[in-house]
Amino acid sequence: MVQVSGISRRGAVAAAAAAAAAPALGGASAQARERAFTSVPDGRGDRRDRPNVLVILGDDLGWADLGCFGSTHIRTPSLDRLASGGVRFTDGYSAAAVCSPTRFGLYTGRYPGRLRGGLEEPIGTPAEQIGIPPEHPTLASLLKGAGYETAMFGKWHCGFLPWFSPLKSGWDTFFGNMSGAVDYYSKLSSRGLDLYEGEVPTESLGYYTETIADRAAAFVRDRHDGPWLLNLNFTAPHWPWEAPGDRAVSKEITARIEAGDRRALRHDDGGSLDTYRRMVEALDTGIGRVLKALRDTGQERGTLVLFASDNGGERWSYTWPLTGAKASLNEGGIRVPTILRWPARIRPRQVSGVPVSTQDWTATIFGAARVEPAASHPLDGRSLAPYLLDGARPPGHDLFWRTRSSRALRRGRWKYLRASGSDALYDLRSDPREQANLAARNPGVLKDLAARWEEIDADLLPYPSP
């Protein structure tokens, strides 16, 4: 673990670039850094209290789209402060390169490929009964069973009504959309109005990012006893490319949807770097309102806040020095900005190069909340709670990904990648851009990682025929 005393814009850029090239696991120097991680001493008494849990997901946010991860043109003061108040993970990953499988990974703590719905890239057809089975244990259902109040605001994308919804999987409260994207003002998806209060269709014509942030802030302000779990799932900065005030753009896209243009929401003919900047800055402002609600109600210290993205960035994102984007298993498609803060237990201004994926956060939350996972559905994620809270060495486990056409596995510094039918091996310590294929120089490493990938894959569901 590398500790920093503060985060300035220039310092953040340098830190991000340095961390991208630094070793994450393996080697004496890396191990020494990881052992330098510090937590708040047990003597402060907060360890006895279970934290509130706030999990915030951005949608298609690029690895370097935040100031604290290197952006030089997008201002994100709220998330920068969140990072300075806790830990910034330079090697945080999504469970998949697209949104639905990653959400399966977060809510179940398991590889997306363990469930039929997790094979969809992403779920897109309401007529098919595909989603998280209501009987499957989830982050929400297990915390609820341990006395947590649970709520979700924003994007679900793990199945459609009437078969699936957050309310069927452990969340007490839901306000949001079922599909992968909606117009930011009209809330239309390609299949009509997609905004629900619980499981009842509703209307709201405000800017969606602001609307769900306000809902989340109100939830926080109304709860002082705890414990609670709040999943705040923004659609920003996913297409369509609409920033606050872009009502004329929304009106045009909405008209195209109503006329039957099924690609209208993709907005292939729209957007700009400036629009994207304003979308991300609106996301940051909304998050700031929720974090302020925590401060104002005295809940900040006792709330574990996790921020990440559901996959890598798309066409307007900034991912330097990574290559690839959403839907690819190159680093730019799966490495995402990741921040964790829990003032009662974790000291501020820390940076970690530990490779960690979505399912690991599920296990970590269970560990922090002292909730036992369901024995009938063992987690694939590894808890970082001993590392974060007790100074233990971080879990040195392999990270695994697959799509219909590609595969990847990371072990410490090494990454095995097969795309376009050929195998590659990259040393992410020195080559985060994945430009130097070292497969021929290190055939033994390639063989070991490929064999491990096959071993994990053999325990998962096969993809259905196209």
How would you briefly describe this protein structure?
With 466 residues, the protein is α/β, with parallel strands linked by helices. Helices cover 29% and strands 16% of the residues. It is built from twelve helices and 17 strands.
Structure description:
With 466 residues, the chain is an alpha/beta fold. It has two domains: 395 residues, Alkaline Phosphatase, subunit A; 57 residues, Arylsulfatase, C-terminal domain. It is globular and about 60 Å long.
Radius of gyration: 21 Å
| CATH top level label of the largest domain | Alpha Beta
Helix content: 25-40%
Tally of DSSP helical segments = 12
CATH architecture of the largest domain: 3-Layer(aba) Sandwich
SS-derived structural category = alpha/beta
CATH topology of the largest domain: Alkaline Phosphatase, subunit A
For CATH, the homologous superfamily of the largest domain is named as Alkaline Phosphatase, subunit A
Total strand count, please?
17
Low-confidence stretches: 1-36, 43-48
How much β-strand is present in the residues?
Answer: 15-25%
End-to-end span in angstroms? 44 Å
Order of strands across the biggest sheet? 1-13-3-12-11-2-10-4-5-8-9
Overall 3D form: globular
Largest sheet: 11 strands, mixed
Order of helices and strands: EHHEHEHHEEEEEEHEHHEHEEHHEEEEH
The number of distinct structural domains comes to: 2
- Summed over residues and divided by their number, the pLDDT gives a mean of 91
Key terms for this structure?
single chain; 466 residues; alpha/beta; Alkaline Phosphatase, subunit A; Arylsulfatase, C-terminal domain; 2 domains; 11-stranded mixed β-sheet; 4-stranded antiparallel β-sheet; 12 helices; 17 strands; disordered N terminus
